[in-house]
């Protein structure tokens, strides 16, 4: 198939990944390309040159319009609207069989656009007002919508999801995440360094549990880093930097435990699945889709409760490494994910006839 992948353009679709959305989009493009599809990635122009890139904007907008300063600003909105309007027109004229929309922008949801090119839209965030009503009005025979967890399906459609909406769990290439039972006895945390990811709470809980912890990830909020995270660094708590995929996999593979601290309605938690693939049990806040993803591979604490998370760290250390690894192999592999994507593409390309069946 000839497939357009329409990305979010806040960050580059390239390693080291800023977060799960960028990792997801990169893996989708790479996986479909490896399966023989003709893939064009509509993303920021500074994304990974291994792909055929059709730029939505010349460079990721965090560089031009830093989110902390321009969130919701008229210049940023106009910049994105212009880029996505033109990109959607090029997709419509490009002879694509399907577009997989990961953009979180309203234009690709419009019926006048999904009516021209069959569209699968993947929603990677909880509902928010700027997009909620466009999503609600968008289901159609030639438009399918996916969310990453049952939790998010209920959040987007509390009165019941339409037949065009479904859960599409994320998947990872398990072979890229080394399985080394045992590890070094230490814990790791990774993700965007921002308050809603809670690394400062992970650090406090690890210290209370007497477990050394290394934090990995991009420092997205420097003020938060300086005020809440950096003062906790020392012999027990380290910062390992922002690593590319291979280096991060090596770091996770050498550890014994993963700490997962969402402080928002986490839609999935790709970093937890990656750690589980390495055989790391998880101590997690019971927030968002954490329990749905981690299941029997972890121990849980109420969101924000550092003392309870310290106890969960102790409990998770008793879980055999084979349990998290097996859960990922059963539920969250890249092959399962891509198989489901291909079925969705076939369904949406078939339109009314497939939906009626």
UniProtKB/TrEMBL annotation:
GO molecular function, one term: glycosyltransferase activity
All copies of domain Glycosyltransferase subfamily 4-like N-terminal, residue ranges: 19-176
Pfam family, one: Glyco_trans_1_4
Keywords recorded for this protein, A-Z: Transferase
InterPro entries assigned: Glyco_trans_4-like_N
Protein's UniProt name: Glycosyl transferase family 1
């Amino acid at each position: 198939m000839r497939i357009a992948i329409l990305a979010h353009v806040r960050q580059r679709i390239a390693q080291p990944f800023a977060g799960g959305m960028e990792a997801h989009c990169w893996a989708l493009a790479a996986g479909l390309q490896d399966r023989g599809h003709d893939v064009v990635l509509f993303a920021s122009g500074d994304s990974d040159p291994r792909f055929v890139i059709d730029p939505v904007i010349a460079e990721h907008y965090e560089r031009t319009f830093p989110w902390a300063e321009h969130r919701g600003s008229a210049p940023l909105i106009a910049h994105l609207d212009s880029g996505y309007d033109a990109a959607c027109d090029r997709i419509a004229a490009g002879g694509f069989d399907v577009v997989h929309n990961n953009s979180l922008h309203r234009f690709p949801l419009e019926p006048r656009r999904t009516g021209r090119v069959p569209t699968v839209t993947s929603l990677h965030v909880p509902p928010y007002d700027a997009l909620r009503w466009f999503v609600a009005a968008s289901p159609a025979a030639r438009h399918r919508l996916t969310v990453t967890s049952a939790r998010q399906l209920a959040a987007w459609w509390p009165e019941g999801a339409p037949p065009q909406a479904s859960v599409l769990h994320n998947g990872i290439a398990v072979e890229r995440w080394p399985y080394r039972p045992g590890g070094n006895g230490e814990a790791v945390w990774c993700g965007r360094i921002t308050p809603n990811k809670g690394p400062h709470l992970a650090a406090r809980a690890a210290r209370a549990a007497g477990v050394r912890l290394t934090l990995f990830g991009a420092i997205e909020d420097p003020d938060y880093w300086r005020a809440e995270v950096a003062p906790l660094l020392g012999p027990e708590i380290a910062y390992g930097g922002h690593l590319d995929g291979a280096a991060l996999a090596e770091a996770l593979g050498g550890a014994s435990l993963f700490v997962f601290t969402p402080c928002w309605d986490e839609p999935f938690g790709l970093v937890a699945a990656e750690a589980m693939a390495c055989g790391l049990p998880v101590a997690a806040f019971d927030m968002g889709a954490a329990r749905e993803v981690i299941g029997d591979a972890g121990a849980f604490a109420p969101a924000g409760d550092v003392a309870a998370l310290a106890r969960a760290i102790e409990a998770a250390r008793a879980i055999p490494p084979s349990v998290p690894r097996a859960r990922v192999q059963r539920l969250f592999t890249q092959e399962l994910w891509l198989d489901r994507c291909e079925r969705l593409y076939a369904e949406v390309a078939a339109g009314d006839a497939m939906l009626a069946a």
